[in-house]
Here is the input.
Amino acid sequence: MRLYNQIFEAIKESETVIIHRHKNPDPDALGSQGGLAEILKASFPTKKVLKAGGPVGDLNYLTEMDDVPDEAYQEALVIVTDTANTPRISDERYSQGKILIKMDHHPNDDDYGDITVVNTKASSSSEIIADFCFHYKNELIMTTKAAELLYAGIVGDTGRFLYPATTSKTMRIVADLMEFPFKPDEINRKMTAMSRKVAQLSGYVLQNIDIHASGVGKVILTKAIMEQFGVKDAETSAIVSLPSTLEEVVLWGIFVEQPDGRFRCRLRSKGPIINEVAKKHDGGGHPLASGANAKDLLEVNQIIQQLIQVAEQS
Ligand code: AMP
Here is the structure.
């Protein structure tokens, strides 16, 4: 709790707090960023609390970014949530504040920040922010909007409580958040709703997944396929977990071709550790949910071969 106290002191001493998160935000990035912003605004009405980062796309029903002028960073406390390494922080001005704090649940491969709270046992960064707020329950105010955002972040990163990172502590925190009068069913519906084109792409993924005898599943979504279904890279988050429903699949990769011909590699596993493979290919992430970048199909196939080795050794 020493680190929580240091963060709490830094917050109390700062007139301006700017909160960042990672690029291509998911519900946990926005939930932890937006949830913390709501808590701090309610708890310290005279402080300037700002959310920094690029566009949030279709997730704008969760939270939106503020216009943060450069001058705001002078003397500011900057808190980055849910972001393992500095190149992935959205808005490079994160380093221009007076103090930098990292609050995250990914493996701490890049130990940036003056104060770092990393709990890889937490299901999500939203769980950490909720835990932090409840720890100072006499001084920090949880609002209904904050509870909704943090709930959304936890639901997002646990795959609706399916993934192994879901613990009894996660459920206790979720229960406390659900004491607030937001509508979990409404937010769940928004988070699971998919467009018809993404539903059709889901069919393609299940029909075309290539499954190796080791249990490694491979799906390649070329530019042509993405165009055929009219789907953008950001929308592939809805289909990443689909292969987990196939009983013979142990771990898998969904490789999404980018406009420049590179492939975004979205890697997932039911048990064998895959983030070491991701790290070898300009990526990283959690042991069972990682991302990487491949410059071409040759590198995609190298990644597949390395994943097969992981599956066969497990
Ligand atoms: P994604 O498939 O993009 O949802 O990523 C899954 C996980 O891997 C996320 O928790 C990310 O933090 C991590 N990740 C994705 N891409 C990268 C990358 N290029 N470098 C490091 N970590 C990544």
In short: DSSP finds ten helices and eleven strands in the chain.
